[in-house]
Specification:
The mean pLDDT is 96. The longest helix has 29 residues. The strands form two sheets. A four-stranded mixed beta sheet has the order 2-1-5-6, covered by helices on one side. A two-stranded antiparallel ribbon has the order 3-4. The protein is built from nine helices and six strands, in the order E-H-E-H-E-E-E-E-H-H-H-H-H-H-H. By secondary structure, it is α+β, with helices and mostly antiparallel strands.
Amino acid sequence: MSTNAPIVFYDIPGKYPERKAWSPNTWNTRFALNYKGIKYRTEWIEYPDIEGLYKKLGTPATSKKADGSDYYTLPLIHDPSTNTIVSDSLLIARYLDRTYPDTPPLFPKGTHAVQAGFIGAVDDAMTRSIFPLVAAFACNYLNESSHRFFRETREPRVGKLEEMAPWGTEKGEEVWKRTEEKFGRVADWLDANKLDGTTGPFVFGENISHADTFIGGRLIWAKTVWGEDSREWKRLATWHGGRWDRFLQVLDQYSAIV
Protein backbone atom coordinates (compact mmCIF):
# COMPACT_ATOMS: atom_id res chain seq x y z
CA MET A 1 0.00 0.00 0.00
CA SER A 2 1.07 3.58 -0.59
CA THR A 3 2.92 5.14 2.29
CA ASN A 4 1.13 8.38 1.38
CA ALA A 5 -2.30 6.97 2.20
CA PRO A 6 -3.80 8.87 5.14
CA ILE A 7 -4.60 7.23 8.44
CA VAL A 8 -8.31 6.51 8.82
CA PHE A 9 -9.48 7.89 12.15
CA TYR A 10 -12.85 6.68 13.40
CA ASP A 11 -14.89 9.07 15.54
CA ILE A 12 -18.45 9.43 16.86
CA PRO A 13 -20.36 12.33 15.28
CA GLY A 14 -22.39 14.95 17.05
CA LYS A 15 -25.52 16.21 15.32
CA TYR A 16 -24.19 19.70 14.64
CA PRO A 17 -22.17 19.83 11.39
CA GLU A 18 -20.14 22.85 12.45
CA ARG A 19 -19.16 21.21 15.76
CA LYS A 20 -19.26 17.53 14.88
CA ALA A 21 -16.41 16.31 17.12
CA TRP A 22 -17.26 16.10 20.80
CA SER A 23 -15.99 12.86 22.41
CA PRO A 24 -13.19 13.32 24.98
CA ASN A 25 -11.35 10.13 24.09
CA THR A 26 -11.41 10.66 20.35
CA TRP A 27 -10.27 14.25 20.88
CA ASN A 28 -7.14 12.81 22.54
CA THR A 29 -6.26 11.21 19.22
CA ARG A 30 -7.30 14.16 17.07
CA PHE A 31 -5.05 16.48 19.07
CA ALA A 32 -2.22 13.94 18.72
CA LEU A 33 -2.57 13.56 14.95
CA ASN A 34 -2.78 17.30 14.41
CA TYR A 35 0.16 18.01 16.72
CA LYS A 36 2.31 15.49 14.90
CA GLY A 37 1.20 16.73 11.50
CA ILE A 38 0.30 13.22 10.32
CA LYS A 39 -2.05 13.01 7.36
CA TYR A 40 -5.42 11.47 8.24
CA ARG A 41 -9.10 11.53 7.44
CA THR A 42 -12.08 11.05 9.74
CA GLU A 43 -14.79 8.46 9.26
CA TRP A 44 -17.83 9.03 11.43
CA ILE A 45 -19.38 6.01 13.16
CA GLU A 46 -22.54 6.06 15.26
CA TYR A 47 -22.38 4.33 18.65
CA PRO A 48 -24.49 1.28 17.69
CA ASP A 49 -22.26 0.66 14.65
CA ILE A 50 -18.92 0.51 16.51
CA GLU A 51 -19.08 -3.21 17.23
CA GLY A 52 -19.88 -3.93 13.58
CA LEU A 53 -16.92 -1.80 12.50
CA TYR A 54 -14.55 -3.85 14.64
CA LYS A 55 -15.90 -7.09 13.21
CA LYS A 56 -15.71 -5.76 9.66
CA LEU A 57 -12.08 -4.81 10.19
CA GLY A 58 -11.36 -8.11 11.92
CA THR A 59 -9.84 -6.48 14.98
CA PRO A 60 -10.38 -7.61 18.60
CA ALA A 61 -12.46 -5.63 21.05
CA THR A 62 -10.79 -2.79 22.92
CA SER A 63 -11.27 -4.50 26.28
CA LYS A 64 -13.71 -6.52 28.36
CA LYS A 65 -16.69 -5.32 30.36
CA ALA A 66 -17.12 -6.31 33.99
CA ASP A 67 -19.33 -9.21 32.94
CA GLY A 68 -16.64 -10.53 30.62
CA SER A 69 -18.31 -9.50 27.36
CA ASP A 70 -16.43 -7.60 24.66
CA TYR A 71 -16.21 -3.81 24.88
CA TYR A 72 -15.87 -1.89 21.61
CA THR A 73 -14.82 1.75 21.78
CA LEU A 74 -13.49 4.64 19.73
CA PRO A 75 -11.02 6.06 18.93
CA LEU A 76 -9.78 3.51 16.47
CA ILE A 77 -7.30 4.12 13.67
CA HIS A 78 -6.35 2.15 10.57
CA ASP A 79 -2.95 3.05 9.15
CA PRO A 80 -2.82 1.82 5.53
CA SER A 81 0.92 2.51 5.38
CA THR A 82 1.56 -0.35 7.80
CA ASN A 83 -1.83 -2.10 7.55
CA THR A 84 -2.14 -1.65 11.31
CA ILE A 85 -5.32 -1.14 13.33
CA VAL A 86 -5.07 0.31 16.84
CA SER A 87 -7.75 1.23 19.38
CA ASP A 88 -7.56 3.15 22.68
CA SER A 89 -6.06 6.63 22.68
CA LEU A 90 -3.09 5.62 24.85
CA LEU A 91 -2.13 2.75 22.55
CA ILE A 92 -2.70 4.94 19.50
CA ALA A 93 -0.38 7.61 20.90
CA ARG A 94 2.32 5.01 21.54
CA TYR A 95 1.87 3.63 18.03
CA LEU A 96 2.18 7.09 16.46
CA ASP A 97 5.40 7.81 18.36
CA ARG A 98 6.87 4.46 17.38
CA THR A 99 5.81 4.55 13.73
CA TYR A 100 6.44 8.24 13.03
CA PRO A 101 9.63 8.97 15.00
CA ASP A 102 10.38 12.15 13.03
CA THR A 103 7.28 13.86 14.42
CA PRO A 104 7.07 15.62 17.81
CA PRO A 105 6.90 12.94 20.54
CA LEU A 106 3.90 12.45 22.78
CA PHE A 107 6.08 10.41 25.14
CA PRO A 108 9.48 12.05 25.60
CA LYS A 109 12.06 9.49 26.59
CA GLY A 110 11.56 8.20 30.13
CA THR A 111 7.98 9.48 30.51
CA HIS A 112 5.87 6.42 29.64
CA ALA A 113 5.46 5.27 33.25
CA VAL A 114 4.84 8.70 34.74
CA GLN A 115 2.32 9.59 32.03
CA ALA A 116 0.41 6.35 32.51
CA GLY A 117 0.13 7.06 36.24
CA PHE A 118 -0.72 10.72 35.73
CA ILE A 119 -3.47 9.90 33.24
CA GLY A 120 -5.03 7.49 35.70
CA ALA A 121 -5.10 10.22 38.32
CA VAL A 122 -6.51 12.78 35.89
CA ASP A 123 -9.18 10.32 34.78
CA ASP A 124 -10.38 10.16 38.38
CA ALA A 125 -10.03 13.87 39.08
CA MET A 126 -11.49 15.21 35.84
CA THR A 127 -13.43 12.61 33.83
CA ARG A 128 -15.32 10.98 36.68
CA SER A 129 -16.02 14.21 38.50
CA ILE A 130 -17.33 16.14 35.50
CA PHE A 131 -19.35 13.32 33.97
CA PRO A 132 -22.52 14.09 35.98
CA LEU A 133 -22.34 17.69 34.74
CA VAL A 134 -21.95 16.85 31.05
CA ALA A 135 -23.71 13.50 30.61
CA ALA A 136 -27.17 14.77 29.68
CA PHE A 137 -25.68 17.42 27.40
CA ALA A 138 -23.49 14.84 25.68
CA CYS A 139 -26.44 12.53 25.17
CA ASN A 140 -28.57 15.30 23.67
CA TYR A 141 -25.68 16.29 21.41
CA LEU A 142 -25.90 13.00 19.51
CA ASN A 143 -27.81 11.80 16.48
CA GLU A 144 -30.87 9.69 17.23
CA SER A 145 -29.31 6.21 17.15
CA SER A 146 -26.31 7.24 19.24
CA HIS A 147 -28.52 9.24 21.60
CA ARG A 148 -30.59 6.15 22.30
CA PHE A 149 -27.51 3.95 22.69
CA PHE A 150 -25.80 6.43 25.06
CA ARG A 151 -28.85 6.65 27.30
CA GLU A 152 -29.61 2.92 27.29
CA THR A 153 -26.04 1.94 28.17
CA ARG A 154 -25.51 4.51 30.93
CA GLU A 155 -28.78 5.09 32.76
CA PRO A 156 -28.95 1.54 34.19
CA ARG A 157 -25.69 2.38 36.01
CA VAL A 158 -26.12 6.05 36.93
CA GLY A 159 -29.85 6.76 36.81
CA LYS A 160 -31.57 9.36 34.66
CA LEU A 161 -28.87 11.57 33.14
CA GLU A 162 -30.80 14.79 33.66
CA GLU A 163 -31.06 14.04 37.39
CA MET A 164 -27.34 13.56 38.05
CA ALA A 165 -26.60 17.23 38.71
CA PRO A 166 -29.54 19.53 37.92
CA TRP A 167 -28.51 23.19 37.60
CA GLY A 168 -29.66 25.39 40.47
CA THR A 169 -30.32 22.55 42.89
CA GLU A 170 -28.50 21.63 46.07
CA LYS A 171 -27.52 18.32 44.52
CA GLY A 172 -26.20 20.00 41.41
CA GLU A 173 -24.24 22.59 43.36
CA GLU A 174 -22.57 19.86 45.41
CA VAL A 175 -21.38 18.21 42.19
CA TRP A 176 -20.10 21.53 40.83
CA LYS A 177 -18.14 22.26 44.00
CA ARG A 178 -16.70 18.76 44.18
CA THR A 179 -15.66 18.93 40.52
CA GLU A 180 -13.99 22.30 41.01
CA GLU A 181 -12.04 20.90 43.94
CA LYS A 182 -10.86 17.90 41.91
CA PHE A 183 -9.86 20.07 38.97
CA GLY A 184 -7.94 22.08 41.54
CA ARG A 185 -5.85 19.02 42.34
CA VAL A 186 -4.76 18.81 38.72
CA ALA A 187 -4.01 22.53 38.73
CA ASP A 188 -1.79 22.01 41.79
CA TRP A 189 0.06 19.17 40.07
CA LEU A 190 0.75 21.36 37.05
CA ASP A 191 1.80 24.28 39.25
CA ALA A 192 4.44 22.08 40.86
CA ASN A 193 6.51 22.64 37.69
CA LYS A 194 7.21 26.13 39.00
CA LEU A 195 9.35 24.67 41.77
CA ASP A 196 12.26 24.20 39.36
CA GLY A 197 11.46 27.17 37.14
CA THR A 198 9.69 25.18 34.41
CA THR A 199 7.38 27.41 32.38
CA GLY A 200 4.45 26.60 30.15
CA PRO A 201 0.91 25.29 30.71
CA PHE A 202 1.57 21.61 30.04
CA VAL A 203 2.61 18.62 32.10
CA PHE A 204 6.20 18.95 30.88
CA GLY A 205 6.15 22.71 30.51
CA GLU A 206 6.11 24.10 26.98
CA ASN A 207 5.93 20.79 25.09
CA ILE A 208 2.73 18.83 24.54
CA SER A 209 2.55 15.23 25.71
CA HIS A 210 -0.13 12.55 25.62
CA ALA A 211 -1.13 13.60 29.14
CA ASP A 212 -1.94 17.06 27.80
CA THR A 213 -4.11 15.74 24.99
CA PHE A 214 -5.95 13.75 27.68
CA ILE A 215 -6.61 16.88 29.73
CA GLY A 216 -7.54 18.80 26.60
CA GLY A 217 -9.99 16.10 25.58
CA ARG A 218 -11.90 16.48 28.84
CA LEU A 219 -12.04 20.24 28.53
CA ILE A 220 -13.13 20.40 24.89
CA TRP A 221 -15.76 17.73 25.60
CA ALA A 222 -17.39 19.97 28.19
CA LYS A 223 -17.01 23.15 26.16
CA THR A 224 -18.49 21.55 23.05
CA VAL A 225 -21.55 19.84 24.51
CA TRP A 226 -22.35 22.73 26.84
CA GLY A 227 -21.61 25.42 24.28
CA GLU A 228 -18.97 28.12 24.45
CA ASP A 229 -21.49 30.74 25.59
CA SER A 230 -23.26 28.50 28.10
CA ARG A 231 -23.48 29.32 31.79
CA GLU A 232 -21.80 25.98 32.46
CA TRP A 233 -18.69 26.64 30.38
CA LYS A 234 -18.45 30.23 31.58
CA ARG A 235 -18.44 28.93 35.15
CA LEU A 236 -15.73 26.33 34.54
CA ALA A 237 -13.65 28.81 32.54
CA THR A 238 -13.26 31.00 35.63
CA TRP A 239 -11.83 28.22 37.79
CA HIS A 240 -8.24 28.44 39.01
CA GLY A 241 -7.53 31.81 37.49
CA GLY A 242 -8.94 30.86 34.10
CA ARG A 243 -6.22 28.29 33.45
CA TRP A 244 -8.49 25.71 31.77
CA ASP A 245 -9.76 28.16 29.20
CA ARG A 246 -6.17 29.22 28.50
CA PHE A 247 -5.12 25.57 28.26
CA LEU A 248 -7.63 25.00 25.46
CA GLN A 249 -6.64 28.23 23.74
CA VAL A 250 -3.07 26.94 23.44
CA LEU A 251 -4.31 23.60 22.08
CA ASP A 252 -6.64 25.32 19.62
CA GLN A 253 -3.98 25.30 16.89
CA TYR A 254 -4.26 21.48 16.93
CA SER A 255 -8.05 21.28 16.93
CA ALA A 256 -8.76 21.04 13.18
CA ILE A 257 -11.42 18.49 12.28
CA VAL A 258 -10.24 16.80 9.09
